Amino acid sequence: MQIITLGNELLRQKAAKIEKIDGDVAKTAGEMLEIIKKDKGVGLAGPQIGVMKRIFVVRIDGDIERVFINPSILETSQETVKAEEGCLSVPGIFADVIRSKTIKIQAWNEKGRPFTLETGGILARVIQHEYDHLEGVIFLDRLPEQKRDRLTAKFEKKAKKARKGAKS
Fold first, then answer.
1. Does any domain span residue 91?
2. Of all helices (H) and strands (E), which one includes residue 161?
3. Among 54, 66, 148, 163, which residue has the fewest nearby CB atoms (within 10 Å)?
4. Into how many domains does the chain fold?
5. pTM of the predicted model, to two decimals?
6. CA 60/CA 126 separation, integer angstroms
């Protein structure tokens, strides 16, 4: 499994519902958690690794590890919070993003058990960020157009330089 980056069209597609939660899905979730441990991320969605299914994982401060399969955000608070975000699919780019302060989400875990979670803080932010990936939305899309265009150009310039360096 490899993380795909901005420019890959899979990141812009909507993920499909997982019809059967089985050992393969649990294995995928485990591998996704390993990727975010290795890459020091806090969340990873299926589309970011080319798995076009409605699954994402979160790992906050190395303590909370959760798997979300076929999630639905049931409620979002009207109160919002602005905080810096980055993304494993847009490495090296960070920006302040406005998100709901609290959310209520329903999903299934890797064992096929349903759960509902009401949360705030960093966990709510990460869940909203990863849920966006399932919808084909990247955090840059949540920025004003001018800022989004500037950061996208910055990423493309870095990526081009990295490709050039890899060929040398």
1. yes
2. helix 145-167
3. 163
4. 1
5. 0.93
6. 9
